[in-house]
Structure to design on (224 residues):
């Protein structure tokens, strides 16, 4: 089953709680919190207190995407805040294998993310520890960017690498995910769709945007 996570980066910060509840009642499978430090990416966003506040209104997956140079500095704080998953970048300064182990030691699901220019081979020595692989289909830092289609082949190559090693690590895709790009992403092997602007800034209500995204998955998965 393909899961949909709403990225709160594109939500209205003045109505965040309300929009989280609306997305949850509309059937979203979880939320991605895009944490940015203004150094790893040229934007500054949320901290542990936002996750803590979200935890009071949602029982869904809270997936913390750490777009920060030194993720190991923040693991305890986001774990205490109530994160269910933390995703770190292979491009960060911290040693990815060590950070992923530290996340799992906290009892939190550990994910790894690759920027568009990062080759698949960067995954080879961390597949024994990563529980989610997130392929960035935009350059991280901002919502509302155009999908980078060259990443579809990367998703397919990662899928093949996992199949060859008989691994069933889910592939997440993040950036420019909407009803137009979802079919190709799912056909390529994405099982978790992270979507921000198409849910929170789409043409219709949050409920209608999520329903449209869900409908765009149909017919493009292996089960269907
Ligand atoms: C980029 C962010 C975005 C966000 C989704 O740093 O990670 O990809 O989650 O944004 P949209 O869906 O608006 O591209």
């Amino acid at each position: 089953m393909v899961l949909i996570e709403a990225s709160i980066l594109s939500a209205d910060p003045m109505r965040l709680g309300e929009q989280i509840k609306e997305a949850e009642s509309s059937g979203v499978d979880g939320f991605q919190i895009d944490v940015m430090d203004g150094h790893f990416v040229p934007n500054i966003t949320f901290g542990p207190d936002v996750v803590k506040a979200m935890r009071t209104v949602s029982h869904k997956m809270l997936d913390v995407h750490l777009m920060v140079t030194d993720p190991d500095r923040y693991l305890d704080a986001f774990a205490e805040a109530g994160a269910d998953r933390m995703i770190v970048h292979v491009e960060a300064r911290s040693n990815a294998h060590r950070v992923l182990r530290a996340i799992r030691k906290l009892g939190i699901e550990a994910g790894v993310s690759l920027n568009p220019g990062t080759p698949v081979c960067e995954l080879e020595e961390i597949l024994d520890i990563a529980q989610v692989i997130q392929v960035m289909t935009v350059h991280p830092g901002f919502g509302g960017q155009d999908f980078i289609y060259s990443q579809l082949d990367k998703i397919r190559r990662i899928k093949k690498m996992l199949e060859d090693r008989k691994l069933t690590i889910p592939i997440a895709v993040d950036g420019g995910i909407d009803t137009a790009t979802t079919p190709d992403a799912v056909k390529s092997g994405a099982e978790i769709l992270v979507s921000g602007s198409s849910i929170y800034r789409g043409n219709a209500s949050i409920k209608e945007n999520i329903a449209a995204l869900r409908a765009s998955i149909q017919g493009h998965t292996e089960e269907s």
